[in-house]
Each structure stands twice: as C-alpha cells, then as structure tokens.
Amino acid sequence: MSVAKLLNRSVGRAGKDSLRVCTLKPVEPEHQTIHLSTGENFVGRSRETGIRDNKCSKRQLQLQVDLKLCGVTLKVLGVNPCGVNGVMVMQHSECELKHGDLVEIVYGRHPFEVVFNPPPTDAKEELHSPSPTGSSATETERWDSAANGKLVIFTSAGVTASEKIAGYDMDGTIIKTKSGYVFPKNTEDWQIIFPEVAEKLKSLHKDGFKICFFTNQGGIAKGKIKLDDFKIKIKQIVAKLGVPVQVFIAIGDGYYRKPLPGMWEHLKEEMNEGVEIQEDRCFFVGDAAGRPETGKGVTKQRKDHSLADRLFATNIGLSFYTPEVHFLGRRVEQWNKPDFDPSCIQDQVALLDPDDISFEGHPCEMVIMVGLPGSGKSHICNAFFQSRGYRIVNADTLGSVQKCLSACQGYLEEGNSCVVDNTNVDAASRKKFLSIASNLKIPCRCLVMNLSVAQVKHNIAFRELSGANHSKINDMVFNMMKKKYQEPALDEGFQSIHRVNFKPEFASEKEEKLYKMYLVEK
C-alpha cells in the first residue's frame, strides 16, 4: 500500500474518532437518550434521563468514556446495584462496557444500550460473531446423552459456544404450571413464568451469552414422565422463547442431579466446543433457593421446596439469583442457610471428648456405639478399636441382632473386650447388650457419634457417590431410626458416656473435593 493511501487512511480514522459520539439509548419509551462526553460522566435520577425512581441515586453510575477506544469504564456509586447484560453489579464495583452492551441503571430497571456513533470498525463483527474462538452456531437441533442415559442434552439450532454462560433452572424459573399446581399435571401444563423472560434471554444472547437450562427430572427415571413426551415439551418451550438454548436434563439421582456439579462439568468438558468458560462472567438463576414462607392470604408465598439451585451455583462457583430478582428486579430475599456447611470441616477437633479417654490396656469391657446410619461408627470401630484388640460385633456382618448378642456373650466370657457396632438408637436395643455385660459383671462404656442429622445425610450421599462399600439406606428406614432415637443416659447401666467427633479421611484429593461440596438438596 502506498504512503499516500496510508496517510489518507490514518487521517480518515482520526477524523472519524474526533467526530464520534457516545450515547445511552433508552430501551423503554419513558426514558430519554443520555449523551455522554469524553471523560467523566454521572448518570442517575434526573429530569434529563427521565428516571424518577427513588431507588436510583442522582449519581447512580460514574461512566468514564474513551471515544477513541470505544470503551466505557462503569463504576456503581449508588447503594442499589446496577445490571450489565443481565448480571448484577454491586456498589463500588467497576466493569468495562462496549458498543451494544445493555446497562440497567438500577438492576432490573431502566435499561439503556451503549451506542458509539460511528461504531468501532469491528463492532458489527463483534456483535454478530459466533463465539470468542470463531466457532460457528449449530445449524440444526440435536439430542445427546451421557452416563448411560442419566444425562440428556438438547441443543437447539443457533446455539453458539461462549465463555459466558447464562444458566437457569427451568420449572419455577423459566416456566410455571397453567393449572396452578406445584407439579405439572402433564407435559402440556406449562406457560412462561413472566412476560419479561423472553426479552431478557434475547438481550443476553445478543450480548454473547450462551443460554443454558439445567433441570432435575427424577420423574423420568421413575416412569412418571415419558422421555419422548418431555423432549417435545422442551422443544416447545425453546420455540416459545425464540432464543437458542442448550438444555441439560438430569434423569434420576446421582452426580448429574443438582446440587451436584455433573451437568455443569459436562457442559465445560463436552458441550462447549472447546471454548473455555470463565465462571466469573457467568451466573445461575433458580427458584430452589431456601426461601421461607412469607406473607398471608393473597400475598402468601410458599417456602422453597429445597436449596438445590442455590447450592448448585455455590458448588460450581457462580453468582446466584432468584427469578424474581433476575427478571423482575425485586430486592434480594431472605433465605435459610443449610444446616451443614461441608467446606468448614473442623480437622483439628479431637476424636474423643474428653480427649483423655483411655482404651490402651483396659480390662475386659463392652463398648456400645450409638449413631444413625452414616455417622461413621464402622469407620471408628475398624480404624480405632480393631488395632487395640477389641472384637467387632455387627448385625450387617453376622446377619441378626440375636447373633450379635451370642457373639458378645462368647467374647466376654473368653476375656475379650468387644464393641457393638450397630445403630443402637433407642434404650430398648441397648438394654439387651447391657444385660449381658451386667450379668457377667463387665463394665460397659457408650460412645455416641457427635454429628448433626444434616451431616449424617451428607455422609450417606458422599459414600454413595464415592462408591464406598455400603448398602444404600432407604429414606423411610433412616427417618424411622431418627424418630426412634433416644439420647443414652448413665442410668441405663453405662459406666460412662463419651462423644466421638467425626474426622473424615480421604483416599484422594478428588474425594476431598467432592466431600466439601453440597451433596444434599435441603
């Protein structure tokens, strides 16, 4: 290219930059176009903007405009957050804006589009490019499956890989029932939950977000819903929304069911065309958020059925919003935290309380373990007592409580200490073993597993997921034992009662990482 042409191009580009203007173009008719000058600008409640909302400060946003680079640095000054392309931005936070970005001056309210005129030379390509890596959108819809059918994935036509994921639960978040029932009567019983849903998703898609739904559908595994019928429902929902969506459907229990991260991991590893996802640019929206019942009468809001969506977002490291906050701009609601936080395991807690209990060289005795299934009794027996010469008695191994009683009688008569490794949750079951010790004039100590019910349920879920050699515990059996539970007392005939603190041990970093996730929905 000649020097003259280079000079002409340079002059032309400089001239274009000097004539460029930046505006915030209103999406809603009640607002005014906001003209921004190069350098520092303040935007908020004023006659010029047409914003009269008291939740919007007069200086809600600080916008630093660079006309040459076609960029805007946004800082939130107001108490209430703003929204950028559907993502909440809190007070004192900063982020970068570009041509075509959607800014909600207050999160969920007063939307404006960032417009540079003339636009940057590559703005058209940026707005319509398929993905950061140049991968193309899917031309036709398709169905995939993984994990022997435990996970089913629908990819509609037009879905494009992206580093930004807008993630949603489906039932109670994108759709609700027409009938008004909590659960749909059939696959036709649905409607879009809010009028704002479709436009919100279209706006995010325009900004380069990949829209993904993550839904638990245990009813398919139980035969209550036919998979083929549900596939038709998914396609109808996506068509109604009018935006490309990738839908992940967890069928049954296991690692792919929320709050477990299986669906998200499969998206990252297999279903995003090799584009690396940036979790700090993603978010997840769901109605299973642990909110309590509020209001009365017509304003009554049922409590959320679980915490699965909120815990799913926590497990995969995403910001979380409820549908009402995300789509309607309502204030963040109160919610009840889970009873057990697996990330806060107290590794330094002594095993026994008090920690000076002696089992070394102790005369012949009986020890009765007490704890719900999954509380770690067998682990303590195998790791602690077996090496000290105690004989372990367990109904799962011997086959019946009667055989356990006979085994204890024999061990004690031979002068061998023994440990009763059953649940022993009520006084009546403990009395049978205490009677043997009393008749033989053998002392009996009691060790009570010091775990909350929530942690016990977590342990059960962990050992099922990690493939530990334990039989599955039926919910009905577990709840029956929990109801029968009676705290041990000295007047039952125990010489002493001690508490055992649970200290998990892991065979690998992978196991430890799994344990420290939320594994239970409630």
Shape: elongated
Number of strands: 25
Describe the sheet with the most strands: 7 strands, mixed
Helix content: 25-40%
Major sheet: arrangement of strands: 11-12-17-16-13-18-19
CATH class of the largest domain: Alpha Beta
Average pLDDT for all residues: 88
What is the CATH third-level topology name of the largest domain?
Rossmann fold
Query: For the CA atoms, what is the radius of gyration?
Result: 31 Å
> Which superfamily, in CATH terms, is the homologous superfamily of the largest domain?
HAD superfamily/HAD-like
Q: Which stretches are low in confidence, meaning pLDDT under 50 for 5 or more residues running?
A: 1-14, 123-134
Please give the CATH architecture of the largest domain: 3-Layer(aba) Sandwich
Instruction: Estimate nothing, just give the exact number of structural domains.
Output: 3
Total of helices:
15
Distance between the termini: 67 Å
Subcellular location: Nucleus
Region (Disordered): 118-141
Domain PNK FHA: 22-90
GO molecular function, one term: double-stranded DNA binding
Structure notes:
The chain has 15 helices and 25 strands. With 522 residues, it is an alpha/beta fold. It has three domains: 3-128, Tumour Suppressor Smad4, CATH 2.60.200.20; 142-328, HAD superfamily/HAD-like (Rossmann fold); 352-515, P-loop containing nucleotide triphosphate hydrolases (Rossmann fold, 3-Layer(aba) Sandwich), CATH 3.40.50. It has a seven-stranded mixed sheet, sandwiched between helices. It has a six-stranded antiparallel sheet with strand order 2-1-10-9-6-7, with no helix packed on it. Strands 20-25-24-21-23-22 form a six-stranded mixed sheet, sandwiched between helices. Strand 18, helix 7 (308-316) and strand 19 (319-321) form a beta-alpha-beta unit. The longest helix has 17 residues, at 3-19. It is elongated and about 100 Å long. The termini are far apart. It is found in: Nucleus. Keywords: DNA damage, DNA repair, Hydrolase, Nucleus. Residues 118-141 are annotated as: Disordered. Residues 22-90 form the PNK FHA domain.
